[in-house]
Amino acid sequence: MLGKWSAVVRGCRGSALVLTIAGLASGGSGCGRWKPLAPEVVRPVAATDPATNYRTVRDIVAEQKYRIVQQDDAKRIMQVLAHVDESDTGHQSYIVIQVDDSAAVQLSPAGALVVENKVHRALNNEVKSLKEAIASRIGGGSIIGWQTSSPASSNTSTTAVANTGIAAGPGGVTNAPPQRFTRGDTQRNAYALVVGIEKYRDVPAAAGARADAEDFARVVELTLGVPPPQIHKIFDERATKTDVENELEWIKLNVPKGGRVFFYYSGHGAPGAKSSGNSRVETPYLVPYDGKSTSLAKTGLPLSQILETLKRSSAKEVFAFLDSCFSGNEGFRSPPSAGTHPVVPVELTPPVNAVVYAASKSDQTAGPDSTGQRGLFTKYLIEALGSAKAEYNGDRNITFKELKDWVNNRVQNAAKQASRIQEPDVNIGRGSESAIDESIVAFGVSSD
Hints:
With 448 residues, the chain is α+β, with helices and mostly antiparallel strands.
């Protein structure tokens, strides 16, 4: 266990607060009430040498840019300075990490003075994110003691999104180097649903779709500042039509009045006949894991229906990002049709205060990046937000207009280099174009 390892943490107005890490007991400074936060534990899924796990944890700490303020390598214990912004409190928070003799990793927060203040909550969320980063390396992705879903539904996350920046391919295998995303201000009234479907039951795979969604989910937490409990993410076989519909209902019931919704989908899209039977104009569908291109009316998810469900929530704004296409062509993320499917325009009218930002126009294919394994649109979407490259006027905010201006040119130019045409498409609810354009998507970011 963590043992009796004490640290001196600066209290308010310069007084010293002595914390005994073992029991998280405190001395009193008279300027706040210490609320212990329960330690988080990651247990390896197989027999592992404790020293090996400790080295892995040190690597993760370095990748996440934590500063180690105390460490004892013999006891496999370290204390790192948290990334929590405490400029208005005058003290600092820490995370104590120890690998015990069973090779389990224990993480204990320390330094948040006032019960349930913003620092206290932020520190708790950061410990959980760091825990998941560690679990993705030594626990096979299994989050022991923190996972709220059952093993049968472990792809549905109702907990925090991993703070690793490491993309996982099929089966959770890491296939990309670590990437650090910029941190933005918290958006406490925001909710997010992230859907990534690479493996389908009845149609060909959508290469890279899951990894794209996992990366975007990390951007949602870190850069867009959506609190981890308010982020749901579903992948592959856990993203059936029923699963997606249930998650949309979750958002509709939980978003507070005046809040906002972020919806991200990476996978196949397809056109389907409108209920009016007009053969010249069709409606766009998202294809769930159990969708069939031959019976979209029964097995697909009409995009218009998704937007209406989200808008029936109390949200003031809805942002939908789609790395899919609806052309009906054979392509990167367009499922093959049964026989020849003509290229037809799809019709979409978002509700007021909603925007759909799609990877390509309705008669184009949403193509891959230069590696052929990841979506070109998501690549630049993540750079614009996660690396804050769309923040170019120095105000530390990214408006939707700044976002689309930065992404669109780069996607179009990269597609031309690959001898094809791909132009990201924006559909905004009638009458709200100006409001959406000036709406701030990410707050308090920095491209430095």
